Structure formats: C-alpha cells, structure tokens
Amino acid sequence: MPLTALDLLQKYWKHQNFRKSQEDIIHNVINGKDVLALLPTGGGKSVCYQIPTLLKEGICIVVSPLIALMQDQVNSLVRKGIKAIAVTSKLTESEIIIAFDNLRYGNIKFLYLSPEKLQSDFIQEKIKQLQVNLIAIDEAHCISEWGHDFRPSYLEINTLKELVPNTPIIALTATATDDVVKDIINLTPLTNPKIFKETFQRKNLAYQVFETEDIYHQLKLILNKIKEPSIIYVSSRKKTKSISDYLNKLGYKSTYYHGGLSNSFKEKSFKKWLNEESNIMVATNAFGMGIDKDNVKVVIHIDIPNSIENYVQEAGRAGRNGKKAFSVILFNHATLHEFNKKIKHNIIEIDFLNKIYNHLNQFFYISKGELLEQKYTFNLQDFCSRYKLNLFNTYNAILLLEKEGILTYDHLQNKQSTVLFKTSNEQVLNYTKTHPKYQNLLHVLLRSYGGIFENSVLINESFLAEKLKTTKQLIIKYLHQIAQDHIIQYIEQTKNTSIQFLVMREDKITINRISKNIIQRNTIKKNKAGKIADYIQNNKICRNVQLLSYFNEKIQEKCGICDVCLREKNKPKNTKQLSQEILKLLKDETELSSKEMILLLKINKDELMDALRFLLEQNSIKLASTNKYKTK
Q: Same domain, yes or no, for 315 and 266?
C-alpha cells in the first residue's frame, strides 16, 4: 500500500496533523503546480517541499543562501534517516563528482545548492543528468532588492528552469512585504503560481520592548526569571564572547556563536545549546536559520536589528512549541545612537562609489576607454592602505559595483588570516617577558579577538598594524616568528582574490548610469532602519498590531501580552502625583537614574517610565549627558 503525506509526517516528523495551508500547499506541489508559500518563522516551510519529494521518484533541488543553513537542513534530514547532500564551495571537484554520482545512483532525495553554484557550467551539466522532481527556492525574499537580504546571485535561479524544464517550483519565505512578493513572482521562474499566505501573527509570542539605562542589569532580571533555552542577539562578533563570558562568571550557563568561528567550534557550541548543557546562546544573526529547536522561551536583542524583517525572523525562533514565549528588545539612547551610526556607515553614497571605482582603475593602470578581459589579482587591505580608505566601506562599495554589473569580485576565494594560541595564558605571559618586542602585539591580539585559545579566529593584520602604529609587513613578520616559537598557529591570508572589469572605463559616466539604482537601494536601507527605530520607540500601539501592519495585515485586535498592552492594563492612575514626587526628588538630589528613582520611590518600572515620559513631554525634565535625569 503506497505511503501518504500523513504517513510520512507521522514517520519522520512525529506530528499528527497538517495545518490546512500546509496540506493545500503539499497537494498542489504533488500535482505539479508552482507555489509561492509565505509562512511565518517556525511555520513548517520545509515539510512543504520535503514530503512531496519523498512521495515521488527523483530528487528535489533546494536553492539556499547560506552554507550553514544548508548544512543544518541536511543534518536534520540525515538524523531522520533521509538521504540529503549539500554541494558547497567547501567540496573539491572530485568530491562534487562523487556527490553527483551518489545523487544519480545512491537514492539521495535532496540536493542543496547555493545560487552561486548554479553559475558553474560543470554543475549545470551534472544537473542535466539528474531526475529532478521539484525545485525549492528557500528564503525567496533574497531575490528582491526590497527584501532584507538581497542576493544578486538569486537572479541566476532562472537557469534551473532551463536545465530541468517542466519541473514544478515552490518558493518559500517567512518575511515578505507586498513589494517583495511581486518581485518573487516576476524574477523567479514561477509560472502562474498559487499563492499561500498565512498570517504572521504569533499569538503565543509576547513582543516586549524595554528602554533601560542599564541593559545588562535588565538582561540579568530576565535570565533570572527564565530558565528555559534562550537566544541573545548582538551586532558584533566580539560581543558574543564577552557577553557569554560575563554571564558565565555570574553563574549562568552560556555559549556563543558567530560567522568567524571555525566549523568545529560552531558545531560544538550549537550542540551544547541544543542539548541544553548551556541553555543560553549569545550570537550574531549568523545563528538561527534552519534551527530546529521548539522550546526556546525567550529571544533577547540587546542591539537593534537591521530591519523589521530581520527582527520578526529572529524573534520567531521563540515559542515554536506553541507555548507562551517572549521576544525582548532592550535599548536606550546610546544603542539608538549606535544603530543610526551603523546604518549611516552602511550607506554607500554615489561620490564615494565613484571614488572607489576611479581608484580601482588607477590601481590596475587601466586607461580611459579601455577594457581588458582579464582577472586582476587583488588584495583589499593593500588597496585600502594605499588610498587610505576605510576597509569596511570599501568592501561594501566593491560589492555594490559587483551587484550593478560593473565588475566581478571573486571574494569567496579569499581566506582571511587566522591565529590560534597553542599554549596557556601563563605560558604566553612568560614568553612576553623573554621576548619583549612581541609583547604589545600579543596583548592586542588577546584584547581584540575572543576565543583565540580555544579556536582559530580570523584576524586583520592591517587593523593590528594601525593599533600598534607600525606596518602590516612587520606584523606579518612578527606573527610568523611567534609561530616558529610554537606560541601560536598562524595561517596567513591567501592572495587569490581577483577582480575582473565588465565595462570599459568611462569614469563618472559609468557610475552615473547606475546612480538611480544606488539611490533606490540607499532609500530602502534608510526606510527599513527608520521603520525598526519607529517600532522600538512607539509605545502607544500594540506591538503585534505594529508588526502585522508592516506586512500589510490590517488586524486591529490587540494581543494583550506585549509591553504596550500590559502597560495599558496596569496603567497607574496617579501619574501626575508621581510626577510631582519625581520633581521634588530631583530638586533635592540634582541628578538621578531611573534605577535610583525606583529604589527611592519604591515603585515599579512601568509606573516610573509613564511619569518620566509625562515630564519629558511637559518639558519639565531632561536627560543629562550622564544618562541620568535632571530638572530643566
């Protein structure tokens, strides 16, 4: 008797029922229809292409944006006893040949590919030899410039339709506005797709935003209450380790994760969190996609997310088991300032782009009107040093030139230098005493890079040279000498990054042609930043209503569990009276923090914040440079 979709669900996923939308999606895909599925984070997107594939002969090609995400999904399938493989840049050509032989003859059901791999003639030829029953485009919002994670390489997905014609396609995303949906339909090879859109509402998830002068104090209060698994999102790699160390010193069990760690450390850290040996994960947004853990109780952001789409995706990793869970953003004036500064740095203006383009032409001695069809070996750090350019902004500008078809930047082959300390902290200290000329370099390494004793970490020799007011060449020389003494393992950056120009040099004319696109992209970035900043500071409208409104869901019903709704329920009646007490207190004490006022007035935080907001609106008090309140 043939298996049904429900049989497979019970066998591999241990669920009893499909939701109606999932059932309809699977039915359409099995019947060969193209589908666009917009399901919330944790909404069971994967089963919508996995079950149809298992019910039919042949394999499913899954296009996915990140190696980590692909590997997570492959591992998840393999744990269930389903054969799957990811063909990534980590595989050699001979390993790829073996992988495709296994796909043809080894009963493997799922092939995960990045869109970049689709551009390889070799991969294309191999795909033609496969019996493909379905194409799944995961994180389909990446194809749209209006999406929060635009990838130009996603535009290459149309190649798949030419390689395996008459194959049904399913595109999936958890976060898409109307503009993004239009782009997905227009830019992917979907043909008259059936669109399924579930509400993004998560009734069990309480969205809460707290303005607090002492973010770490507030963080401790939350972690003291919640003992279940949690995720803390931060914006920098360095913070992941420093905050994890800080929490561990306080007696919490935490680990950390970011994109710069070695695969072995990431896997070890993930397993510790998954098995709840360390129930707190401190991470950048590199952590999260494809994570199959349903009992996360709270997701905390102590840095402001880049967009509402990013936030909803990250927050949605809490409460997938249907039980009440929390998503918390902690912020203050300082974090808002840092956020605005970061957004400003991420915006590449036309003048700067033109400057980088001109410098690149000068760097490779390209004359006006000339186009040489060759690849130039390129070292970004040397380029930035010669022209005294900011490394981060220059890298983003070059990527932008690549997106606009001005050049190709083979940045995926570039491997940054790594360092791992092979001795103990005490031995390093003794070494600096006997080798004083390396002392400053070793101290800067230890201060600047977390986890350097446990794992190889990515380093930047130009950054170290700048810190120590010396040359990059001397830093490299010292690192090799210290490595020879077996104190560190140092692997120097490979030099095989390359640039190829795709259009002739026309200086300003070249950039003027693409200026409209650049301005549009910058506008989108600014708008997204403005929307998340507005959301954080809007404490008058239910958080759930605000988020759903962003995705054009006009739900007026308040959630009743966010910070805005709870404050409304428990709103104090004596705000004016409390305001007078605060003014009297500030007159006596000159300046006070909100934490000090709570202790002195013996009131709760919500009551105080209402009164402080009232006084700020009345222009009776102001925030001093010390981040404390004082009278005007």
A: yes
Q: Are residues 84 and 155 in the same domain?
A: yes
Nearest to 405 by CA among 300, 481, 513, 486: 513
On whether both 584 and 513 belong to a single domain, the answer is: no
Same domain, yes or no, for 448 and 549? no
Within-domain flag for 547:
yes
Query: pLDDT of 485-540, one tens digit each?
Result: 999 999 887 655 788 898 899 888 999 988 988 888 888 889 999 999 999 999 99
Instruction: Check the CA dihedral 343-345-351-356 and report its sign.
Output: negative
Amino acid type, 180? V
Sequence-distant (6+) residues with CB within 8 A of 16 are 10
Q: Around Cβ 562, how many Cβ atoms within 10 Å?
A: 25
User: What residues are paired with 169 via a beta bridge?
Assistant: 135
Residue 225 sits in the same domain as residue 332: yes
Tell me which residues of the chain have a pLDDT lower than 70. 1-3, 5-7, 9-18, 42-43, 68, 89-90, 148, 263, 289-290, 292, 411-415, 494-496, 570-573
For 463, residues 6+ apart whose C-beta sits below 8 A from its C-beta are 391, 448
> How distant, in Å, are the alpha carbons of 30, 133, 171, 316 from that of 313?
28, 29, 17, 5
Cα gap 252→282, rounded to integer Å:
12
Q: Both tokens of residue 42?
A: 């944790």
Q: Are 553 and 547 in contact (CB under 8 A)?
A: no
Q: In sequence order, what are the residues at sequence separation of 6 or more whose Cβ sits closer than 8 angstroms to the Cβ of residue 315?
A: 41, 205, 207, 299, 301, 327
Q: Which residue has the tokens 């994890």?
A: 244
Shared domain for 372 and 301, answered yes or no, is no
Helix H or strand E segment including 206: strand 205-211
Residue 591 lies in a domain: yes
Q: Say if residue 341 is exposed, middle or buried (CB neighbours under 10 Å; 0-12, 13-18, 19+).
A: exposed
Going by C-beta distance under 8 Å and a sequence separation of 6 or more, which residues neighbour residue 219? 232, 300, 302, 330
Single-letter amino acid code for the residue at 334: A
Catalogue the E-assigned strands of 484-604: 488-491, 498-501
Range of the domain at 588: 570-631
Handedness of CA 23, 26, 30, 32 (dihedral sign): positive
Q: Which helix (H) or strand (E) holds 248?
A: helix 237-249
Strand partners, 500: 408
Number of domains in the chain: 5
173 with 215, same domain?
A: no
* pLDDT for position 414: 47
Q: What's the whole-model pTM score?
A: 0.71
CB 575 within 8 A of CB 583: no
Helix ranges (H only) for 20-85 are 20-30, 47-55, 67-79
> What is the reported pLDDT for 229?
95
pLDDT in tens, 440-451: 999 999 888 877
Say what the pLDDT of residue 569 is: 78
| Interior/surface letters 202-214, b for 16+ CB within 10 angstroms, e for the rest | beebbbbbbbbbe
Whether residue 352 sits in one domain with residue 322: no
The verdict on residue 277 lying in a domain is yes
Instruction: Give the DSSP H/E element, type plus range, for residue 233.
Output: strand 230-233
